[in-house]
Amino acid sequence: MHSNHLQNGIESDNLLWSRVPDSDDASTDGVGLLSSPRDGGGGVDSLDYEVIENYAYREEQAHRGKLYVGYYVAVKWFFSLLIGIGTGLAAVFINLSVENFAGWKFALTFAIIQKSYFAGFIVYLVINLVLVFSSAYIITQFAPAAAGSGIPEIKGYLNGIDIPGTLLFRTLIGKIFGSIGSVGGGLALGKEGPLVHTGACIASLLGQGGSTKYHFNSRWPQLFKSDRDRRDLVTCGCAAGVAAAFRAPVGGVLFALEEVTSWWRSQLMWRVFFTSAIVAVVVRTAMGWCKSGICGHFGGGGFIIWDVSDGQDDYYFKELLPMAVIGVIGGLLGALFNQLTYYMTSWRRNYLHKKGNRVKIYEACIISCLTSAISFGLPLLRKCSPCPETVTDSGIECPRPPGMYGNYVNFYCKTDNEYNDLATIFFNTQDDAIRNLFSAKTMREFSAQSLLTFLAMFYTLAVVTFGTAVPAGQFVPGIMIGSTYGRLVGMFVVRFYKKLNIEEGTYALLGAASFLGGSMRMTVSLCVIMVEITNNLKLLPLIMLVLLVSKAVGDAFNEGLYEVQARLKGIPLLESRPKYHMRQMIAKEACQSQKVISLPRVIRVADVASILRSNKHNGFPVIDHTRSGETLVIGLVLRSHLLVLLQSKVDFQHSPLPCDPSARPIMHRFSEFAKPVSSKGLCIEDIHLTSDDLEMYIDLAPFLNPSPYVVPEDMSLTKVYNLFRQLGLRHLFVVPRPSRVIGLITRKDLLIEENGESSAVELQQSTSVRGRYSETATRTDAGRPLLDDLLG
């Protein structure tokens, strides 16, 4: 009997499953299997963004009045406030720690090199090595999911993919302290990407009430149980991370909209903007509090923001060509960077990192020693230059006294009136090096030879460092690389157009934007971020120009950096546009290789347990039979819901006959079916069933989704792809062409007021198509008003 039920309906109804390879193919294609990790899957799982409108959900909604809805909305706004405060404080702590570690390191090194450069190098190397070792040790031993920038993982989460460990409390701790060690240790990476991951972790932990594993949790904030609500919170956290990193609240909102989210709505926009504004207030307050000097080296520099408002006032038509050239260079170097990091990361994952955590720590320490040797040793080989006479007029001190870092660093110079231009950008924090490259009124501070040397070495270090077992962002290294060749182009433009008022720092800014656009392929959000962090709105058209050019050039070669890294990590992202060959395919062709297992409405407990053990599917069509023997698909039941039913046992029944769901009390709250955010939900092996339990039955009707999304079998795969992605679906039914239509919904059918009446009073008839075309319908259609035609 059971086998007949399983085979019934398979030929007539198909289920469109996510198109990802098996776990055996994952090792070659770099794509994981969408199944539960504990069930032996490939490590990632899909999220249920669709609202399961079963009887438990409808019963809860029926008991919720307007007061509860108001409370629910108020809690969402309150959580947005907490996310902004938490992310802002985390960013303040990270920046304060990094700036103080870097300040103490350079102050001590400058003090020692007055007596011995070799001793200064040893101290410099040891401090960097200790910081990087601590970061790598934290990541490998405590929080492996905190390695890298975290943006590909968060982008995958908001795309509908749940990766175990991404949003845990230990990942948050590892991200914060690991970023302090890796950035403070002078590696060619930044803390901006990890701050996005940090904000997402804070948002997720607030939504689930803290961490149960570390006994740091509370029950009252556990209001957001569904993946849909957690997605909104994580989106707020991503925007807060960017706003905290760059002090760019508008840029944070646009970054979340353009780069990481696959689904957006106006209500979410308001909360995301509010969260970013709170972050900006927290950061500004902290920096104002630290200006008195109580925060050590943090305060004057601290958060990366480079004011170039006193730079070039205007630009000329003749400059557009070299600026476009900067965009081309940025696209080429950005695409090359993506490809090289792809090869390096692939080699690490397939060979080096398979040798264990100890090898990962050794690798990070070796790269730290190499970076320290290059940043300290190369300036020693560079001949110092005399301070220019125009520096005194600009108010910039030349050279900097020992123990200070900024423009015109005196490093291994014979006289006190000289500076080392290579040490000015190499032997400096990345934030101050960028500030030096962006600086105005410092014409000819850097030689072309020094800029080329720094570009080649830092580009190589950035490629080699990206992918190590430490938290690593690519915003600041990308700005460093781009501003270097941008300033180099600016030097040639100044020499070519001798009479124009041109600043080399302006071209450095455009170079930074071009490299980020060529590597990350962001446009609108990156443009706003660059304007916010430079405080110069006049450069907006030029930044737009180089971003458009660099993105177009980069797209001609490969994907963006985050998409490449997501593919390497086995995150099956659904991109914004379907593949071209999907236009020639239909839905039936896409799911022909999928085996669908249907369940009868009333099923034995033993059969449910057997099905869950024998396959890894996460959703099952539920079928029923009419009195005439016709097979009907009545809905979709999720694997996680079946496991909850087996675990509780309160819905078991002795009779194999169905019961009326409306007359039967629901023994479960809808929130009980929610999956934990840590992806460690129930597993069939964890459930103990007695022999008596196995002989009982379950009526699945009250717990299934009675209205899953359905598409006809001949729909183009492009339309299926867009529907699946934009609605954030996990399952999609593919059914034969329907035989009849019971109605047609148009725009005016959805314009309903709260009292249930249509808002368009003048509309005389619904455009819904009825089963029969009566004479009355014919007469009414003849006199249909013009407004009805417009709305239909």
Please provide a written account of the structure:
Keywords: CBS domain, Chloride, Chloride channel, Ion channel, Ion transport, Membrane, Repeat, Transmembrane, Transmembrane helix, Transport, Voltage-gated channel. Residues 592-652, 704-761 form the CBS domain. InterPro entries: CBS_dom (IPR000644), CBS_dom_sf (IPR046342), Cl-channel/antiporter (IPR051280), Cl-channel_core (IPR014743), Cl_channel_pln (IPR002251), ClC (IPR001807). It holds the Pfam family Voltage_CLC. The chain has 792 residues and is mainly alpha-helical. Helix content is 52%, strand content 6%. Strands 1-15-14 form a three-stranded mixed sheet. The longest helix is centred in the N-terminal third of the chain and has 48 residues, at 66-113. The radius of gyration is 30 Å and the shape is elongated. The two termini are 48 Å apart. Mean pLDDT is 81; it is low at 1-42 and 760-792.
Brief descriptors of the model:
disordered N terminus; 6% strand; transport; 792 residues; transmembrane; 15 strands; elongated; 52% helix; three-stranded mixed beta sheet; voltage-gated channel
- The shape, in one word, is elongated
Number of strands: 15
User: What portion of the residues fall into strands of 2 or more residues?
Assistant: 5-15%
Largest sheet: 3 strands, mixed
Strand order of the largest sheet: 1-15-14
Average pLDDT number: 81
Low-confidence stretches: 1-42, 760-792
**Quaternary organisation of the protein chains:** single chain
Number of helices: 29
Q: What class, by secondary structure content?
A: mainly alpha
Rg over C-alpha atoms, rounded to the nearest angstrom: 30 Å
Q: What percent of the residues sit in helical stretches (DSSP H or I)?
A: 40-55%
Distance between the termini: 48 Å
